[in-house]
Task: structure prediction
Amino acid sequence: MRSGWLAAGLLLPLLLAAQVRINELQCTRLPGTDGRLANGDWVELVNLGRKALDLQGYCLTVEGHMARIPAGMPVMPGEHKVFWCGKDPGSLDRLPLKLPRRGSTLLLVAPDGATVLDVFTWPALPPGTSIGRTANGAAAWGYFAEPTPGAPNGQALARLLAPPRLQRASVAPVLTVPPGAEVRYTTDGSLPQPGSARYERPLQVVPGTLVQACALAPGAVPSTAIWFTAGLPDTAWSLALDPADLHGEQGIADTASGNHARKGRQWQRQAWLQRGDRVEPVGVSIAGSGSRSLPKRNFHLLVRDRFTGMGPIALPDGSAWRTLLLRADATPHAFLRNVFMHEVAHRSGDRVDVQPWAMVPFFLNGADQGLYRAMPSKGKEWLRSLNHGLPVEVMDPTASDTTATGRLSWFGSARAGGHAEDSLDRLLDVESLLELACFDLWTGRADHDINVRAWRPPQGRWRWVLYDMDLWAPPDDHTLARMCGSMLPEAPFLPQILADAGLRDLFLARFSALCATTLGPDRAAALADSLFLRHHAALTADHVRWRSEMPSPPPAATYSDLLDHIASRNGELFGQLTAMTGRTTVSVAVRVVPPGAGRVMVEDLFLTSDRREMRVFKDVPLHLVAQPGAGMEFQAWQGVPQNGPAMLLAPGGKLYLQAVFRPQALSRQGGL
Result:
């Protein structure tokens, strides 16, 4: 008898627990809202028993993620208790749980952590639709076009419609109609209703028209609406979203405030990305800092479950990304300066990392937005790709991450404390750091102190990223004094570099080599010419699109400004570096004999295959290598005592060097 009472005592808590059921849930955000509380993800439990129950210790579990209900959460008989999904430590009814929009399985688990009391699996749901029991505690489930969190469920619908599919968007758009349904569409941004225009044949609409379409049928929940823009060029990218999500009180691009406070997950919105005839759901948010107040905005595209993302977004180079940046290059001179420095970084040997990009014509809710660049965000997804997909650590002094900031401060202290050069080289990629310092000094960019990011494999060496190279100083700016005397001189580390004799010479050698090669006036001007000619038409169209809303110099003025910088910047900086370091400059002329028989490299950069003169710092060592061409071999250096093709040259004055090559056949025959 006693054992029977014991068994009953053990079963009683579980019998009471069985009073509680999952009654209704919503896993989508209502358009035009902040996505919080009833407008976002939530789970409703119902007490079907006759006794009150304390929910402390109960768990809701999705895909291995468990959220435990805290103390102080009683549920009365017949009461509907709603738990809002999200992070809010000050609220007992807020659980740190995500309900996948693509569908998943939710478990209600007893306080013992092992007994499953209720299970429910749901499919992908359109925005504003919930799923739940047809009646309190009933075994049957249905869909609710009008969710009722905290109240008895309303009239359930048994069917959920799939959305129509776009087959062709460029000319006379064609849609696929789901079986047993009809497709209704609008062109004014409103949600299609039973009385909206019915799709029966290819649409005859003006190019640039924003179309919203969804499937409807009696007794069924309307499908998720798809958005697309008709008649766009195949190369265009188009983004469509609810106008209330773009402008107004809940709009991410509200122009009245510059939306500097509209950041974070609560300011991400559902959108549809269209490329050619392909339309896919994505999340969207405003990106950037200073440019957020400009009419032409940067956008982040987010492939996430909560936006029903179907896969990474591909770029023309074959790479694909779950977080993509649509960069507006809206500040004066931004596009040409950014692409110029990206190309210089590549031509200089990729010692700093730059994001791949593709130029795209961009439309937003049917309106032409001009020229944009699509590229991966500079976050961990892209940085992991540089490490073969493996984990990385990121150092960003502008982030709130105190660990990252601490690492940066530690490096500054370590360098100022006189760490040996070999110890520093084990900590970071010195070549990468020096490259960033050279590029920052050459451009004189005003925001160098906030645009600093480095990454490394765990326990590896830090390597630097080059980005946002648009805010240059005038060519005669006293950049060196400004950067070395800033409040945060650790970015880009010029004071530490110039204070250490070894690092200073490495920096001066690299700077001299860059000014003689990729940043030499002739080669840099040729690069500027090619970029301007390649993008002139797109830059001009973009300027015409935005000149009334956002005054900026025309493309020809941007091109002229770039050429002026190239023509005079090197000489200005040689003078500043001489004044600060006390190192004067000398001339080194290099000639290849015979011309074209080989080439000479300086600091791993191509110098010449004919003849070229360099301005370098006196007594600062430079690495030179003579490389023979096809069928040739190195014979000798003339003008300096050196036997092999590679040498470390520390010029004490003006020099004339010749790299002499000869055909390989002559050496085999004993020729001179």
